[in-house]
Amino acid sequence: MDKFTVLTGVAAPLPMINVDTDMIIPKQFLKTIKRTGLGKNLFDEMRYTQDGKEVADFVLNKAAYRSASILVSGANFGCGSSREHAPWAILDFGIRCVIAPSFADIFYNNCFKNGILPIKLPQEQVDKLMDDANRGANAVVTVDLNKQVITGPDGGSISFEIDPFRKHCLLNGLDDIGLTLQRDAKIASFEETRRVSYPWL
Q: Mean pLDDT throughout 86-102?
């Protein structure tokens, strides 16, 4: 998993509440178990017409936001089914940070496991960032995880809270496998002791 330290990029505004996981990545794209290749279908039913043409006024189809790495959205983001394909699609598109007033619990947890930083902020601060995000190509925002500060295009800053353990994992690029491998020497020692003590196992 890639480390998350400081992210500077364009923030895309998606002023919608209750964005569910079927909106993020529709069910027909859940056949894969790969974490890559889903970005092109992120928000598929909003990004494309039924015949596959781009919907011109959808935010991620606009020139200013095609390379957005931050998404600012409404409350209860990631609700619905618990599909992990949702953060996979967001990450594969290139978004590393989602900012909203609240998140569905399973989606929120899945973000951390996939190297995405979900930030919860009060509605008035989200509204400010949403306004910043509407600046198009000038909507450049910096998210400093170590300092826990978001800096907007005008230089104003907003502090955010994050669980210390999750912060540690993101800063060091540690998913569940990475955390386990940190104990690799102790695991190997245990296995060797067990092999010697119980050779019949």
A: 98
C-alpha span between 77 and 126 (Å, rounded):
13
Read off the pLDDT of residues 13-25 as tens digits, 9 standing for 90 and up.
999 999 999 999 9
Q: State the CATH number of the domain containing residue 113.
A: 3.20.19.10
List the one residue out of 72, 61, 70, 48 whose CA is nearest residue 144: 70
Asked if the structure places residue 151 within a domain, the reply is yes
Alpha-carbon span 198 to 187, nearest angstrom? 16
* Phi and psi angles of residue 103, each rounded to the nearest 5 degrees, phi first: -135, 155
Q: Where are the beta strands (DSSP E) in 89-132?
A: 97-100, 117-120
Q: Which domain holds residue 52?
A: 6-173
Q: In sequence order, what are the residues at sequence separation of 6 or more whose Cβ sits closer than 8 angstroms to the Cβ of residue 83?
A: 21, 25, 30
| Residue 79, in any domain of the structure | yes
Residue 194 domain-assigned? no
3 state DSSP class of 14: strand
